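Per reviewer request, we include the raw input and output of the structure prediction for the construct analysed in the revised manuscript.
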Amino acid sequence: MSLALRLSLAVVAAILALPCAAFATHTPLRSRNLWATINICDTPNHADTIGVRGSMPGTGRHGERMYMRIQVEYFDQAAQDFTLVSEELGRRGDGKGVWIVLDPIDGSINAKRGLPFCSLSVAVAEGGTMADVVFAYVYDFGTGEEWTAERGGGAKLNGAPLDGEGPKERIEILALEATRTDRVAQHTPALVDLAYRLRIFGSLAISLCHLADGRVDAVCSLKPARSVDIAAAQLLVRERGLAIDLPERPPFGSAPLDLEGRSRVVAAGTAELCRSLAAALG
């Protein structure tokens, strides 16, 4: 099947047993079956179908071990020619065919504690680098928002094009990720002259989606980011014409789709702002 047909992937996400009431009351997640199923298929007539199921059972109570399990199902023989990159399974496949970069729960600590900032992230690529990502899907479990992007086809929120006002030229709101207390204490003093306010969501994918919609003006991770964290959301950022960089390992487009964290990520409305943020982080 041609790559052109793969660009028209139909993505359907069914979010089952999501304890929205727990989010609303700020209590721990109580469902033992928090999971999501993504059916990625080619058209017409579903010639190739790949099913990817991410599962995170558990109540989220103190002392209970949380874990994730990924189950890859082959619904059609033709669908076996693909490579999967997942935090839980590592890399499966020999690099041929379509690449799928999957993070079933970005923001797992938030999910465990009942905080409404966690997401499902799926990127589909025609090769093994960031520049090869052709389709992106991010589902925000807290808001129910579906963020999608197609390379060369723009970015969308709940099916509607993201074409509103983007991030501001001066950073009013900066979203920080990988925010262990010592990292925040170390890096935030240098950001005082660059950003007026800080926000910490706990999901890098969600933060980048918010940048794409102009809800925040810049995003920084305080530790090296992995492809599973950013492969999908970065396409929304780039399709909006915004800037994103891995300052310790440029260029961004050449970054491998693997599980190694090589560089912190910075993203903003312009490349100049990205450079300023990277310099401030040191």
